[in-house]
Amino acid sequence: AYLLILLVWLIGGALTGVGVYLYLETVEIGTCINDELAPLMIVLVAVGGVLLITAFFGLCGVCKKRSSLLSGFLAAMIIVLLAQFAAVVIMFIFESSIHYFMRDGMTHSLLFYGKGGDNVKFTDSWDYVQENHKCCGQFGWEDYTTPNASNWFSTKFGSLPDSCCKTKEAKCGEGVIDKKDIKKAPGNINLKGCYDIVEDYAQQWLTIAGSAALVFMFIQVIAIFLNISLHRRYREHEDYQTQSRKVKQVKDANNPEKTV
User: Fold this and answer.
1) How far apart are the first and last CA of the chain?
2) Where are the alpha helices (DSSP H) in 149-193?
3) In degrees rounded to 5, what are phi and psi of residue 192?
4) Closest listed residue to residue 218, CA positions, set 51, 107, 85
5) Distance between CA 229 and CA 28 in Å, rounded?
6) Per-residue exposure over 105-133, b if at least 16 CB sit within 10 Å of its own CB, e if not
7) Is the pTM of the predicted complex or chain greater than 0.85?
8) pLDDT tops 80 at residue 32
9) In 3-state terms, what secondary structure has residue 189?
10) How far, in Å, CA of 144 to CA of 158, rounded?
11) How far apart are CA 13 and CA 8, in angstroms?
12) pLDDT (tens digit per residue) in 177-204
């Protein structure tokens, strides 16, 4: 019985840990590509947290040997399993169509690169992606030399973001583009675009998250069947105790002298 509770507790902790880790891994690129990634990871954290709380009630049921508490534990596990299944389905659907979300998201966010105010989040996200994934622009450094691709063209034409540099230093991207021949590839700049790199990266983490959730779901199914068996045993024990008390009460009623 306690092994069952420990199993559920470990699953909840693992889901929470995986969700938090993946959230931190994807939140920085979420603004750049699309804000749909982070909520999916939050769902994993929420499911893990609910499992941890559910395990506590299950522990109370085991300690007190109350089938009613185990019934609540079982119901909560089934609900969480269904929610987790829905989240996994959404995750795999999102993975298969991520290029649609990414293309629109990256095209939109790059338009606001370099702008201040509320648009700073786009600049920060792009800088994070470009610096950490060694890339530049959505499809290449040329995006920053195209009028309709980025705000950067109208404000800092002739330069590239410092985050595009192979070795990042202050103002390392300033004046690196030959204005007489803008198609000439600049030196010390990551020339490859971020789209393919980030798409592979996002799909990788979505696959990891979905696969981990499927493994945990399989273990949860085993835990549910163990819980059903335990609940049945406790219920039979409770029924036996109830029946024994009734028999004793009948005997006492028929033999009042012994009761006195």
Assistant:
1) 41
2) 152-156
3) -75, 145
4) 85
5) 45
6) bbbebbbbbbeeeeeeebbebbbbbbbeb
7) no
8) no
9) strand
10) 9
11) 9
12) 877 777 788 888 898 999 888 888 878 8
pLDDT tens-place string over residues 224-258: 787 777 767 767 766 666 777 766 776 666 766 55
Q: Which ranges of 34-66 would DSSP assign to H, the alpha helix? A: 37-64
Question: Residue 64: pLDDT band by 50, 70, 90 thresholds?
Answer: low
Structure-block tokens of residue 186: 């600049």
Question: 131-169: per-residue pLDDT in tens?
Answer: 989 999 889 988 888 877 677 766 777 888 899 998 888
- Alpha-carbon distance values, 44 to 14, 31, 78, 207, 227 (Å): 10, 20, 16, 13, 23
* SS3 (DSSP) at 191: coil
Contact between 75 and 102 under an 8 Å Cβ cutoff? The reply is: no
Report how far residue 102's alpha carbon sits from residue 34's, in angstroms, rounded to the nearest whole number: 6
Nearest Cα residue to 61 out of 119, 5, 124: 5
Distance CA 70, CA 48 (A): 19
pLDDT score recorded for residue 207: 80
Structure tokens at 16: 């929470």
